[in-house]
Amino acid sequence: MIYTVTVNPSIDYIVQLKKLELGKVNRMSYDTKLPGGKGINVSRILKELGQPNIAWGFIGGFTGKFIEHELQKQNLKTDFTEIQADTRINVKIKAQSETEINGQGPQLAAAEIADFKQKLAALRPGDVVILSGSLVPSLPTDFYFELIELIKAHQSEFVIDTTGKSLLRTLGQNPLVVKPNHHELAELFGVKFSGLQDIVFYGQKLLAMGAQHVLISMAGDGGLLIDQQGVYYSPAPKGKVINSVGAGDSMIGGFVGTYAASHDSLKSFRYGLACGSATAFSEDLADRAKIAEILPQIKIEKYEA
Questions:
Q1: At 81, which helix (H) or strand (E)?
Q2: Helix/strand/coil for 288
């Protein structure tokens, strides 16, 4: 089974304006409300791929009820930990450019945190837990690492979608996948890249430090997979980018869902790229039809320095 963890989910309130004028009353031309959070995004993509999964996380208040109701409408299986405080609302304004106003998230009680950790007792060898997204302020900064220790104790795999020191600390626990973009990778090692060779060099460092698979997204320049079999490159497929929200989550969902079913890293890389691009070319997260449309465009070649 695959489990996704969204510690700090949200209602994403998306507002479309012709032009945003600060200090004035603005009339929206379109709005919608969606269940948000990186782990939830991954669960939705896994569902499109037909891969069974369960969404874990903390939800509370009328906002939390909305999220759970919307996911149930999509036949997505959830097992959230209920909390007293309200789940946050994030505002995504699409006008001349994209502007985001994100809530901090709720305060969590010690008993609520303990209830959530108890869910990990259900893990079995071979299960995969995907940890992604920001932590709420009331959680310790090493909360993900605490969860990883519990996951490993059950001989389950984990995927970590984070950056900086938090990512580096987890590498010794052999994450199944890490997925920095090229900017995050450069920042991680305090360097500037002058070309693809530099990106590959530092991606291989993550492999040497313990990651089983390293995915590196490079926006319009394509993506890389680095594992024990080698380095593989794929150029970006052609299409109009209309949505930057959830593309990275979709890439993780495509890779992990395919890998869980096939244990074929190249096939998983191909589906990861297709899912990420399909979301970038869609108003919302990609659906099964859009993924199938993009998949034939994905071409993978072995990288030779």
A1: strand 81-83
A2: helix
**3-state secondary structure at position 20:** coil
User: pLDDT for 154-213, tens place per residue?
Assistant: 999 999 988 778 888 889 999 999 999 999 999 999 999 988 999 999 999 999 999 999
Token pair for 49: 């791929």
User: What is the Cα–Cα distance from 9 to 65, expressed in whole angstroms?
Assistant: 12
Cα torsion 11, 16, 21, 27: sign: negative
Q: What is the pLDDT of residue 282?
A: 87
| Region of 209 on the Ramachandran plot (φ > 0 left; ψ -120 to 50 alpha; else beta) | alpha
Which residues partner with 302 through β-bridges? 232
Task: Check 249, 264, 284, 287 and give the catalytic one.
Answer: 249
User: Residue 138's CB: how many other CB atoms inside 10 A?
Assistant: 16
Let me know if 161 is a catalytic residue.
no
Q: Are 189 and 202 in contact (CB under 8 A)?
A: yes
How many Å apart are CA 42 and CA 62, to the nearest integer? Answer: 23
CA 181/CA 67 separation, integer angstroms? 28
Q: How many CB atoms lie within 10 A of CB 168?
A: 16
Residue with the two structure tokens 């600390």: 169
Interatomic CA distance for residues 271 and 183, integer angstroms = 23
**Strand order across the 98-101 sheet:** 30-36, 10-16, 88-94, 98-101
- ∠ CA 267-4-154 to the nearest 5 degrees? 90
> Which pLDDT value is given to residue 86?
96
Angle formed by the axes of helices 265-280 and 247-262, nearest 10°: 150
Q: Are strands 230-234 and 301-302 parallel, antiparallel or unpaired?
A: antiparallel
Q: How far apart are CA 260 and CA 119, in angstroms?
A: 21
